[in-house]
């Protein structure tokens, strides 16, 4: 460290120190602060990055030597970096949150999410609100005149006719109240017509009972003769103690009065016994399009057949119905859709209306949570999309603790030692568990992943939290920063995407409170999360210039002084030009990485980290696949990356850039495998570069040249030989790899020195790997014979 201290300039009063310092191992301007470019408004640019500087991580003896550190990387096969998985998971996260999440608005509100007021307020969070008392003629006409009957409607009518009391049990939104009033109207109207001998001149009276009515103690004498009644509370009072004999007594009294009662109950309501003869399990709801057509016909005065024909020609009807019923059947939402279609509203107008309706339904549902535990789960599911349940459970518990810490001890709710079962909590959160194959260190494995049933919910959760729950911002951002350092790359990718979306709603706040502190930790996981988070704002033209300017600032090593060894922002810039921002403009990314690869000064551990950081970004550019890519465009981009590495490793390039180029090639060789076969996901894979070398002579020559240069680059000779040993070991376990390995090694041997070095190492390994080593030695003998 004495040599490092001697070469490092001291920060002056206005310079940067601590977390703002530049990395050791990168060029620093000579003569202290002289020669640095002007730094306009430095305080504003750095404001908020007040995270205490952590002590530099201690390293063990094996990692003090940079060359040994590089050899360790190659010995592990590069797998410790999880580079391919991290890039792929970021692509999945952006697709799920931004695209499948309903084409999220970057930099704006998601429809009317968060408002909870206006035309939809109070209609979709649960039971619709109805005042007790008589049902008006207009209301009855609207319900009866536009009713699509479900399959079990005849059962409701039969029970009501025979027993005068029917308990209708179905999920919220099924249309239970409409079914109850239609059944009452059908039964009462038919009975009065029978008694009069002709069509009655007026309809019987229908009334709603008080929602707190308890059926066990209801007196039949309170009912007027020739009337129909509906009891449709949010929660049926005394349901657990309600038994069939209570309803038998009530039914006898109503029969004498010629009155009828329909009780509406949620499908999760428990009764004292099965209520045989009275309870009707309503089964599937009426056809959604039929409900829309019925209300279309009522408003437009067209026949049902005409309305069905018009809806069949309306190309977007299925999309609207799916959006409205994604969380379950919504009779009221479908009814309003039919009314608006009858008003000849345009497609964009109806689309905006549907978005507002769905958003308001979501907000009213989210507001209904009283449990802090359940709210923490809801927020966690909004961030960790399609993540193993174990990680979601752990993160939700951590968020709950952070929220509790901000509540006064006397006001903190007590948490039950045994909470409700997982299935109950997930059902309440409208989430589901599915089994999927996920990559692990040693290959794919089955895991349980959890997600919302509605793919638009994650974006709605984040929008609601950010725009409506501002009091939660400090705890929420603190929690995201904690998850940014998770060891699971899937978790980090999801967190990065969530942070990126938040940055489009408040760029400066997220930059100051999240991105800078993460970069300044100088820990790999946090730096990668900060870099990958920039993908989402970079998608938007409004934010891309801000992202590019910020990366230019972070990547300008001349703008930081390195007294305290804090190169995190520089490393974050290096990583951002990989999966973060690079795939959006690969040519610019390669140019910037080429500039950042010019690392001057002695090779120390900071230099090694910089080299590995850039090599990981190069790998992501090589391996990244855009949605509209085909085999030709992917191959063209991969050849372009190999060509760039050939330029980096030319003899005329600075030695630091040559090292980075050679290391990038080694990482491509070790870390990239052929895609797994979905039909046999556990089948062994092959190194991608070796497979491509077998298929394309041009790629074989490039691979051979780059490997030859890696073998002859200082600080990388051991790593290059270790990469060969690693591939020889894989070829020993999987013979399919051997032909491509033999050809690539043959193409890398270009001098007699290469032959001697390669032959000496192979002979040492021959006892352990006899078959592949024998094939390689035979190839070397063939090359020697051709040179004689």
Description:
The chain is of the alpha/beta class and 788 residues long. It is 55% helix and 6% strand. It contains 34 helices and 9 strands. Strands 1-3-4-5-2-6 form a 6-stranded mixed β-sheet. It has a 3-stranded antiparallel β-sheet with strand order 7-9-8. Strand 8 (431-440) and strand 9 form a beta hairpin. Helix 18 runs parallel beside helix 20, helix 25 (586-596) runs antiparallel to helix 26 and helix 29 crosses helix 30 (697-711). It is elongated.
Number of strands: 9
Q: What is the radius of gyration computed over CA atoms, rounded to a whole number of angstroms? A: 34 Å
The largest sheet, given as strand count, sense and whether it forms a barrel, is: 6 strands, mixed
Poorly predicted spans? 1-63, 111-129
* Average pLDDT figure: 81
Q: Assess the beta-strand content as a share of residues.
A: 5-15%
Provide the spatial order of strands within the biggest beta sheet.
1-3-4-5-2-6
Distance between the termini: 51 Å
Binned, the helix content reads 40-55%
Structural class given helices, strands, pairing? Answer: alpha/beta
SS element count, helices: 34
- Tell me the overall shape: elongated
